[in-house]
Amino acid sequence: MENKKKPARKVIVIGHLNPDTDSVCSAIAYSYLKNQISELDTEPRRAGEINQETAFALKYFGVRPPRLCTDVGPQVQDLEYRHLDGISSSTSVHTAWKRMREVNIDTLPIISEDGQLSSIVTLTDVSDACMDVLDTTILAKSHTPYRNILEVLDGEMLTGDPDGVIDHGKLGLAAGNPEAMEEFLEPGDIVILSSRYEFQFCALEMGAGCLIVCADNGTVTPVPKTILKLAQERGCTIIVTPKDFYTAAKLLSLASPVQHYMQPKDSLLTFTLNTPLEDVQKVMAQVRYHYFPVVTRGGKYVGLLSRRNLLNMQRRQLILVDHNEKTQAIDGYEKADILEIIDHHRIGSIETPAPVYFRNVPVGCTATIITQMFWENMVEIPQKIAGLLLSAILSDTLMFRSPTSTPIDERVAHDLAKIAGVDIEEYASQMFEAGSNIEGKTAQDIFMQDFKVFKAGDSRYGIGQGSYMSEKNLRAAAELLLPFLPEAVREHGLSDVFYMLTSVRDETTYLLFYGDQAEELIRIGFPGCKIEGSIATLPGVVSRKKQLLPAIVSAFTQI
Q1: SS3 per residue for 173-214
Q2: Chain CA centroid to CA 408, Å
Q3: Non-local CB neighbours of 446 within 8 Å, separated by 6+ positions
Q4: Looking at domain 443-558, which of 3.40.50.720, 3.40.1080.10, 3.10.310.20, 1.10.10.10 is its CATH number?
Q5: Of 57, 148, 176, 513, which residue is the least packed, with the fewest Cβ within 10 Å?
Q6: pLDDT score, position 465
Q7: Where in the chain is the domain with CATH 3.10.310.20?
């Protein structure tokens, strides 16, 4: 058995928290591009639940959603743990000991047929088995398979079932004269004896369950046919071994299966691949075990972890798309290696210890930048990828109505529409309608569909946005969200919160707000705007990035 090689780690391509269509679709498209033009093995992931609009786009073009990733801080899977094959619970203690010596380890995992971790066996357990040489009933107590005895003694079974199991009888040594067996031998016992006929015959007459015939001076003497016939008639197993009396007696206790000595499963300390390194260090500081089994979330064994493995941690590798703000990045990003950032927002607060490839272009959508990168590298855009890139552009630019939209976005979108085989007007209408459907949604569901946190000095504030094609859905969303805003402030630790309910057709935003300074910030940022209760009407405002956020940032400096 050889140690398995750990598979190479994938580079994660991921967007911001509470992902929108651009964040998810850009991650998928850029991961595909990187896999075509570089040696990196990348995988798109998402940092939150997918909203209805994005779900519609993915389903429309037949693309599976990326896997969820909520934390890229170091985990067990980032460590060079030992990929050691496990043994079965029926393995003999002797074989387990030899395996420990071969691979220089004092702990072996015990694995079921379907790969589940059953337990572990340690060198201490092997030592206990060696001491059980004084227990003459150990083979029966441990339900030792006959195959273990054959293996340990290099034996050959002449009569009996090699797949059988010893479940009764004690172990005895026949020496001196045959009559001495009368003092200890009982029906069903296992007897170690020589090749002398009278010993074998006497043991059979007394009802022995198994005869282990040892070599004389290193020579195995054939068992007489009369003895074999009598053994078969009486259901007695006969095994011959080239071992001598002393060696056979010592080795037999080590034929017991490891399941008799293994640790109870409920007492095991295990880690999953996703266990944070911080938790691992806390556990290791409290116990003195040398090795800890590593399992999947489903309980399948994958390897063994020791303290020295903590010295060889591999940091996660990330490519960030559609964001470069700390407050929008996935948890643990600061403990990972950021390789690239592709974004179209303002330059934010993420810092890297080393130079990275940073592409920031003032266009309406990250997907526009990624499409240009396909062209620059002369990589053909598949129909599905074109459809996702188009969906992202239509979403972020509100079908070119947003002030963030540029002629480049519109030109790129029309080229992508040809590849995807869709009509822009018709497809955009379907996508926005799917995204604005609030049937069966809670206030939190709607709120988290597209919500971002920002900082201004010591203040943390949040801005969410939902785009609506119908006035009915927009008003229904407002009724759900208004009473939810105070809870959102408390949950996210914010000073103020704003939520843009944007009418795509009217190109107007109805801004819900809550917080100590929220109303004042709006009045400063949008002088003369109409405010009724906790809703401000902002005609012509449809962009969070280019219209609302700059106004709020400027207003904070004036308070």
Answers
A1: ECCCCHHHHHHCCCCCCEEEECCCHHHHHHHHHCCCCEEEEC
A2: 40
A3: 438, 466, 477, 480, 481
A4: 3.10.310.20
A5: 176
A6: 94
A7: 443-558
In contact, 20 and 14? CB cutoff 8 Å:
no
Architecture of domain 11-74+316-435: Alpha-Beta Complex (3.90)
- Distance (Å, rounded) from C-alpha 503 to C-alpha 446? 15
How far apart CA 254 and CA 256 sit, in angstroms, is: 5
Matching residue, tokens 């890229």: 72
**What's the rounded Cα separation, in Å, for the pair 53 and 61?**
13
Regions of the chain short of the pLDDT cut 70: 1-8, 132-134
Enter the pTM of the model. Answer: 0.66
Residues in the chain: 559
pLDDT tens-digit readout, 227-265: 999 999 999 999 999 999 889 988 888 899 999 888 787
Q: Residue 261: what pLDDT? A: 86
Tell me which residue of 274, 295, 271 sits closest to 284, measured CA to CA. Answer: 271
* CATH annotation of 143-255: 3.40.1390.20
Paired tokens of 105: 């380890």
What is the rounded distance in angstroms from the CA atom of residue 45 to the CA atom of residue 347? 23
Rounded Cα distance between 454 and 551, Å, is: 13
Strands 237-240 and 301-305: unpaired
Our measurement of the distance from residue 186's CA atom to the centroid of its chain's CA atoms, rounded to an integer in Å, reads: 56
Which helix (H) or strand (E) segment holds residue 343: the answer is: strand 337-343
Q: Is 6 exposed, middle or buried (0-12, 13-18, 19+ CB in 10 A)?
A: middle
- Please choose, from the candidates 20, 99, 87, 21, the residue with its C-alpha nearest in 3D space to the C-alpha of residue 60: 21
Q: Check residue 3 and give its pLDDT.
A: 47
Tokens of 113: 């047929």
What are the DSSP calls for 404-419, one per residue?
A: T--HHHHHHHHHHHHH
Nearest to 259 by CA among 84, 94, 119, 117: 119
Residues 6+ apart with CB under 8 A from 451: 18, 462, 463, 464, 465, 499
Torsion of CA 121, 123, 127, 128, to 10 degrees: -30
* Alpha carbon distance 315, 333 (integer Å): 10
Q: Which residues pair with 462 in a beta bridge?
A: 453, 497
Judge residue 530's burial from the number of C-beta atoms within 10 Å of its C-beta, 0-12 exposed, 13-18 middle, 19 or more buried.
exposed
